[in-house]
Write a structure and sequence with these properties.
There is one protein chain. With 437 residues, the chain is of the alpha+beta class. The protein has eleven helices and eleven strands. The strands form three sheets. Strands 6, 7, 8, 9 and 10 form a five-stranded antiparallel β-sheet that branches. Helix 5 packs across helix 10. The longest helix has 36 residues. It starts with a strand and ends in a 9-residue tail after the last helix.
């Protein structure tokens, strides 16, 4: 087998492969012999059909099958011989594909980049330090109460911000009702900013049984382009007005969170435990994001277009699954996902190289610790732990997370690390979106 390789770009390779005609004929003959043992042809007993008849009937198909298999096998042999690491399948172009002649074809493909990860000591990391204080727990209790607000009829009084109103309304543009502009028995909390500007404000002061006509204008950036910037008239009938009632911190309220018989102190302790877990995860995530950004900045590498394309397709599928709708993944524009896909691919290659250079393996003790921490958020944590250990796919996903944490730890050993004391609220505040590679 003759092999020559040409570098057409930093990562693209053009490999010409020649396969002797004798090898092709040997493969064709093997397939014809297999066919002869099974062929059923009128006038001949099974297994006794002359090879000349077999060749006449089946040689073309056997040759095509043999050539296809030989291209696959010889390509693999060639990349091993040339010590190449292809990223994705090759594009194959036959040059000589004739009976009785050597097979010659060209395979064009991309290879994985070869690089050494460096620059750990130039990465600056700010690690937040925070604690969950009593005031933080108090604030969280109020948030939980507001999330479980009940509304009770506000007899005889006018609606105000924070009240819930039941309304019937009809919206018209140029005197004509428009699609989606009418509803009956719609529940609306005033001040929630669920409706267009002026709608909720226009109902403040209204009483049950009152009708109000609101003359409003749709925002210029309104999602329905046919309505954007247009004037509209809404006729609104107020059916009822209800005022918010926060639940008491009692056993009934605690029971909604699966906590019974432990009183307020027990509930506070459980809330604190959850907040501390959230705090640890938030700090860890922000450190990880900084490490990943630092690795990207310190190790600019070119990556195969095929890998980015594959990741774009995965992101498309995820988007369709997340948002639903009658749309196929390939109908979503690739450019929507290219930056995120490139970041993921580059980071994946860099992380893999850090793992390789430092001979890292998932620490099973940390795997167990992570599973137990995730399980602690459930009412039956031991059942959750057992479920993980019975599901190899889930275990592998946890091991991947732990391995990334070990990569972060490896970088932190050499990075410029500073600690910064902040409040709980600042520490758990979502980080800004990571920059593209």
């Amino acid at each position: 087998m003759q092999v020559s390789v040409e570098s057409t770009s930093a990562l693209e390779r053009r490999m010409t492969i020649g396969v002797p005609a004798e090898r092709i004929e040997t493969e064709v003959t093997k397939r014809l012999q297999q066919t002869a043992r099974q062929a059923k042809i009128a006038g001949f007993r099974p297994g006794k059909v002359p090879m000349s008849v077999i060749r006449q009937r089946y040689e073309d198909a056997a040759r095509q099958e043999a050539l296809g298999d030989l291209i696959q096998s010889t390509f693999y042999e060639a990349v091993v011989e040339q010590k190449l690491n292809p990223a994705g399948s090759p594009a194959v172009e036959p040059k000589v594909f004739e009976k009785g002649k050597d097979l010659e074809y060209v395979a064009t493909f991309e290879v994985f980049p070869e690089f050494q990860v460096a620059g750990f000591d130039g990465i600056a990391i700010e690690r937040l330090q925070a604690e969950v204080g009593e005031a933080d727990v108090d604030n969280m209790l109020e948030i939980l109460r507001k999330q479980n607000t009940r509304f009770e009829a506000a007899e005889g009084r006018a609606a105000q911000d924070g009240d819930q109103v039941s309304i019937d309304f009809v919206g018209k543009v140029d005197g004509e009702a428009f699609s989606g502009g009418s509803a009956k028995g719609s529940l609306l909390v005033l001040g929630s900013k669920r409706m267009i500007p002026g709608f909720e404000e226009g109902l403040v002061g209204a009483k049950a049984g009152e009708e109000r006509v609101l003359n409003l204008t749709f925002p210029e950036d309104y999602q329905n382009l046919e309505l954007a910037g247009k004037a509209a008239e809404f006729t609104v009938n107020v059916n009822s007005v209800s005022e918010p009632k926060l639940p008491e911190l009692d056993e009934e309220f605690f029971g909604q969170f699966g906590i019974k018989g432990e009183g307020l102190e027990g509930f506070r302790a459980e809330v604190r435990k959850n907040m501390e877990r959230e705090l640890r995860q938030a700090i860890k995530a922000k450190v990880k994001n900084q490490v990943m950004d630092g690795l990207l900045s310190a190790n600019p590498i070119e990556v195969p277009k095929s890998l980015i394309g594959n990741e774009v397709n995965r992101l498309r599928v995820q988007a369709v699954q997340q948002f639903g709708g009658n749309i196929k993944p390939d109908q979503l524009p690739a450019e929507l996902f290219e930056e995120q896909a490139k970041r993921r691919v580059v980071l994946g290659l860099i992380i893999a190289e850090v793992v390789k250079q430092n001979e890292l393996k998932p620490d099973e003790a940390r795997v167990r610790e992570l599973i137990e921490e995730m399980a602690s958020a459930y009412q039956e944590p031991q059942q959750v732990v057992a479920w993980y250990y019975k599901n190899e796919q889930q275990m592998n996903e946890v091991r991947s997370v732990v391995l990334e944490e070990q990569v972060v730890d490896t970088v932190l050993q050499k990075a410029k690390l500073t600690d910064k004391a902040v409040s709980y609220e600042e520490a758990v505040k979502p980080a800004e979106a990571p920059q593209a590679a």
